[in-house]
Write a structure and sequence with these properties.
Blueprint (H helix, E strand, L loop, with lengths): L2 H6 L6 H6 L5 H13 L1 H12 L10 E2 L7 E2 L4 E2 L1 H5 L4 H4 L3 E6 L5 E5 H18 L7 E5 L4 H13 L2 E4 L6 H11 L3 E5 L1 E4 L2 E4 L1 H7 L8 E5 L13 E3 H4 L12 E2 L3 E7 L7 E6 H16 L6 E4 L6 H13 L3 E5 L10 H9 L3 E4 L1 H11 L13 E5 L5 H11 L5 E5 L33 E4 L13 E5 L9 E2 L3 H9 L3 E2 L2 E2 L1 E9 L5 E6 L3 E4 L2 E4 H8 L5 E11 L3 E10 L11 H15 L8 E4 L13 H9 L14 H11 L1
Parallel strand pairs: 4-17, 6-7, 6-8, 7-14, 8-11, 11-12, 16-17, 16-18, 18-19, 19-20, 31-32
Antiparallel strand pairs: 1-2, 3-13, 4-5, 9-10, 14-15, 15-23, 21-22, 22-26, 24-25, 26-27, 28-29, 30-31
Helix pairs in contact: 3-4, 7-8, 9-10, 12-13, 15-16
The structure holds 5'-O-[(S)-butoxy(hydroxy)phosphoryl]adenosine.
C-alpha cells in the first residue's frame, strides 16, 4: 500500500474503550466545541471552577483588553503544587503518584503522601537554607530522577519560577539560559546513568558558572556518586541536607496569573526565548487534556517517555498527570537499552495503559526491534500517543499494528512549548483516526488554517498557516524580558478580520472532511528528533570558528530523526591555507564547536564547504534553494535574479560529489 493510500484509511475508535471514554463520540465533541464557540468565557469558566481547587475563587474569566497580553481567571488564588498533591491526599494518599525506573532497572514507587513529604522537604530546603522566595528564578539541570519532579513542585510550592534546561545542553547553552533568566539557584545532580554507565552533569554546571554569574547557590543530588568538585559556600549536597527538613510546608498563595515556569525554546532568529507559562491557565489545560486525550482512568498507569527538559515532560510527565491524580511513570534510561524491547518489557511489567512517545523513537524502535513487541504482553495498552513532529505512515502503521495490536487509539497530538498543552489531537473514544493526521482542534481551541495574505480560512488541500484565533488559558504569556519579541514572534504574521492571531509557525492542510494534517515549520526552525533547533543558533555557533566566513544551515529529511541538520560553510581561505589538513578535520572541529556551544543534539549531519552562498542582490541568503539542493531536488525557482547565479551550479556539483 502506498503512503497516500495508507493516509486515506480511517480507523474507528475501539468500541469497548469508547463506552467509558470522557468524550464518547463525535456528537459529544461537536456539542462541546459548539458550546465553547457560543459562550467562550462560560465554557472556560465552568471548567476552571470544576477542575481547580481554588484557595480563592476568580472574578473574571478572560481579559483580552490588552491583547496579546491576556489574563485568565483574575482574582483567583491557587497553588499549583497543591493542585497536584494536597488535594489528592483525602482520596489517594496511598496511590502511586510516580513510578520510577532507573537506567539499571532500579525501581521506586512514590505515593501521593510520600510525594507530599518529599516536595515539602525540598521546598523547606530551598526557602530556609537557600533563601528562595516567590518570584525568584531557579534553574533545574537534572537527569530523569524523581528529585527532578520534586524540584519542580517545590518551586511551585514556594512560588519560585523554575526554568529547566535539558541535560543534553552544553555549558554555554546553560550559561545563556541562567543569565537570561537571572537565576539565583541551580538544582542539579552529580550525574546519572545511561546504558549502565555513569555520565556527569555537575562539571557542566561548574563550567557554566565560571566568571561572573547571578547564581549564588547550587544544590546537588548525588545520584551516581561519582567524584565531583564542590565549591565551598556555593555547592551543597541534597542527600546530606534533605533529611533534616520539615515535612510540612504551607503552599504560597499565588495569583492565577503568577508565573509558574520558563522554558527556553528555539525560534527562527536569535537566541532561544524564555517561554513563560502562568499558574492557573496552564495547570487547567494540562489537566483537561490529560483527561480528554489520554482518557486516563483512576486505576490506570500512564507512561510518557519524554525528558522533563522539554515541554512534553513538564505537561505530560509531571503537571498534567499529577493534577488529575494519575500514576505517572518516569524513566531514566534509553528505550533501546539493553535492547529495543525495553519499553515493551516495561509496558508488560507495569501494565501500562497509555504510552506516549515521539515518532523518532517509534522509528528507532521499529528499525532496531521490529519483532520485539510480540515478545511481550501488551494487552493493557489502550491509548498510544505521539508528539513532536509529523509521524510518517509506515511508523504509524507499525505502532498501530505491532504495538497496539490494531486495537488502541493512536493520538497524534499537535502542540508546542508555547501552547502549554495539546491543541489539535484525536480523542481516543470519539475521533475516527486517519494515519499520521492530528485530526481536529480540541474543544475550546479555536484553531484554524489561514491564508497568511488574506486571513481567510483556506480551502481543501490548500496549504495555509496553523493559527489559533482566540487566546486560550495555557497560551504563552510572554517571552521572558522581551515584550516586543513576544508580540513579534507570535502575533506578527497573520491577521484575521484585521486582528492579529496566534501563529504557530507551522503549515497545515485540511482534507475534504476537515481533518487537519500538519505539514511542518514554515520558518527557519528545524525539527531534529522532535527537538526544535533554530538555524540561526547553529549558524552562530559555526561562526565562532575563525576560518568560517559565511554559513547557512537548513533542514534535510532524515530517515530516523525526521530532519537532520545540513550546513553550507564558506571558508575564509579555503582548506589549503587553513590550519586544518583536510575537510574531515574541519568538519570535526566545527561539530566540536557545536557540542561546546549548544550540545550533542545540534551536531550537523552534513557539512559541505562551498565557494559562496546563493544570495539576492540585496544580500539575503536564498535558503529555499539550499533546502532543495540538500534534498537533492531539481531547482525550479528562478535564480536569474541572484547576485551570482553560477554559485548554484557549483554548490549542486559539490553536494552531489
Ligand atoms: C513543534 C513544537 C509539543 C511538544 C514537543 C515539541 C512540531 C509537535 C507535532 C505533531 C506534527 C508536530 C511542530 C511544532 N510538532 N507535535 N503531532 N505533528 N508536528 O515541542 O519543541 O515546542 O516544538 O513541533 O513543528 O511547532 P516544541
Amino acid at each position: 500500500m502506498s503512503e497516500q493510500q495508507m493516509k486515506k484509511q480511517v480507523f474507528k475508535p475501539n468500541k469497548e474503550f469508547a463506552k467509558t471514554a470522557r468524550i464518547k463520540n463525535m456528537c459529544e465533541y461537536h456539542e462541546l466545541q459548539d458550546a465553547a464557540i457560543e459562550d467562550y468565557e462560560g465554557f472556560w469558566g465552568s471548567y476552571a471552577k470544576e477542575k481547580i481547587d481554588w484557595i480563592q475563587p476568580f472574578d473574571g474569566v478572560m481579559d483580552e483588553s490588552n491583547f496579546p497580553f491576556v489574563k485568565w481567571f483574575e482574582g483567583g488564588k491557587l497553588n499549583v503544587s497543591a493542585q497536584c498533591i494536597d488535594r489528592h491526599l483525602d482520596t489517594r494518599k496511598n496511590k502511586a503518584a510516580i513510578i520510577f525506573e532507573g537506567d539499571r532497572g532500579d525501581k521506586q514507587i512514590i505515593t501521593y503522601l510520600e510525594l507530599y513529604y518529599q516536595v515539602n522537604k525540598f521546598a523547606n530546603l530551598l526557602r530556609n537554607e537557600f533563601g528562595v522566595a516567590k518570584g525568584d528564578r531557579v534553574v533545574i539541570y537534572m537527569p530523569m530522577i524523581p528529585e527532578a519532579a520534586y524540584a519542580m513542585l517545590a518551586c511551585a510550592r514556594i512560588g519560585a519560577i523554575h526554568s529547566i534546561v535539558f541535560g543534553g545542553f552544553s555549558a554555554e547553552a546553560l550559561r545563556d539560559r541562567i543569565e537570561d533568566a537571572d537565576a539565583k539557584v541551580v538544582l542539579t545532580a552529580d550525574g546519572a546513568y545511561r546504558k549502565d554507565k555513569p555520565y556527569m552533569l555537575k562539571p557542566v554546571v561548574d563550567k557554566a558558572l565560571e566568571g561572573e554569574t547571578p547564581v549564588e547557590k547550587v544544590l546537588v543530588v548525588q545520584r551516581n556518586h561519582e567524584d565531583i568538585e564542590w565549591v565551598s559556600g556555593r555547592d551543597y549536597s541534597y542527600n546530606e541536607m534533605i533529611e533534616q527538613q520539615s515535612t510540612a510546608f504551607e503552599p504560597e498563595v499565588m495569583d492565577a496569573e503568577d508565573p509558574l515556569f520558563l522554558l527556553y525554546t528555539s525560534g527562527s532568529t536569535g537566541k532561544p526565548k524564555g517561554v513563560q507559562h502562568n499558574s492557573a491557565g496552564y495547570i487547567l489545560w494540562a489537566q483537561m487534556t490529560m483527561e480528554w486525550v489520554f482518557d486516563v482512568k483512576e486505576n490506570d498507569t500512564y507512561w510518557c517517555t519524554a525528558d522533563i527538559g522539554w515541554i512534553t515532560g513538564h505537561t505530560y510527565i509531571v503537571y498534567g498527570p499529577l493534577a488529575m491524580g494519575a500514576t505517572t511513570v518516569m524513566f531514566e534510561g534509553v528505550p533501546t537499552y539493553p535492547d529495543a524491547g525495553r519499553p515493551w518489557k516495561m509496558v508488560e511489567e507495569y501494565k501500562i495503559n497509555q504510552f506516549y512517545t515521539a515518532p523518532t523513537a517509534i522509528r528507532v524502535l521499529h528499525k532496531m526491534g521490529e519483532d520485539e513487541p510480540a515478545k511481550y504482553d501488551l494487552s493493557s495498552l489502550k491509548v498510544l500517543g505521539t508528539v513532536g513532529e509529523p509521524i510518517d505512515p509506515p511508523a504509524w502503521k507499525w505502532y498501530y499494528e505491532s504495538v497496539g495490536n490494531s486495537n488502541c487509539a493512536i493520538v497524534d497530538t499537535y502542540w508546542q512549548t508555547e501552547t502549554g498543552g495539546h491543541i489539535i489531537s484525536p480523542l481516543p473514544g470519539a475521533t475516527p483516526i486517519k494515519p499520521a493526521c492530528a485530526t481536529f482542534a480540541l474543544p475550546g481551541i479555536m484553531a484554524e488554517i489561514l491564508d497568511p495574505e488574506t486571513g481567510e480560512k483556506v480551502g481543501v488541500d490548500e496549504k495555509g498557516y496553523m493559527c489559533v484565533t482566540r487566546p486560550w488559558p495555557s497560551m504563552i504569556r510572554g517571552v521572558w524580558g522581551d515584550e516586543e519579541r513576544f508580540v513579534k514572534s507570535y502575533f506578527g504574521d497573520v491577521k484575521k478580520d484585521g486582528k492579529p492571531v496566534y501563529f504557530t509557525g507551522d503549515g497545515a492542510v485540511y482534507d475534504e472532511e476537515g481533518y487537519i494534517t500538519i505539514t511542518g515549520r514554515t520558518d527557519d526552525v528545524i525539527n531534529v528528533s522532535g527537538h526544535r533547533m533554530g538555524t540561526a543558533e547553529v549558524e552562530a555557533a559555526l561562526k565562532k570558528e575563525s576560518e568560517v566566513a559565511e554559513v547557512a544551515v537548513v533542514g534535510k529529511p532524515h530517515p530516523l530523526k525526521g530532519e537532520g541538520i545540513f550546513a553550507y560553510v564558506v571558508l575564509k581561505h579555503g582548506l589549503d591555507e587553513s590550519r586544518f589538513e583536510d575537510d574531515v578535520a574541519m568538519v570535526k572541529a566545527l561539530n566540536g564547536i557545536i557540542k561546546q556551544e549548544i550540545g550533542n543534539i545540534a551536531v550537523c549531519d552534513d557539512i559541505v564547504f562551498v565557494p559562496g552562498l546563493p544570495k539576492t542582490r540585496s544580500g539575503k541568503i536564498m535558503r529555499r534553494i539550499l533546502r532543495s539542493i540538500a534534498k537533492g531536488e531539481e531547482i525550479t525557482q528562478d535564480i536569474s535574479t541572484l547576485e551570482d547565479p553560477s554559485v548554484v551550479e557549483k554548490i549542486i556539483s559539490i553536494v552531489k560529489s
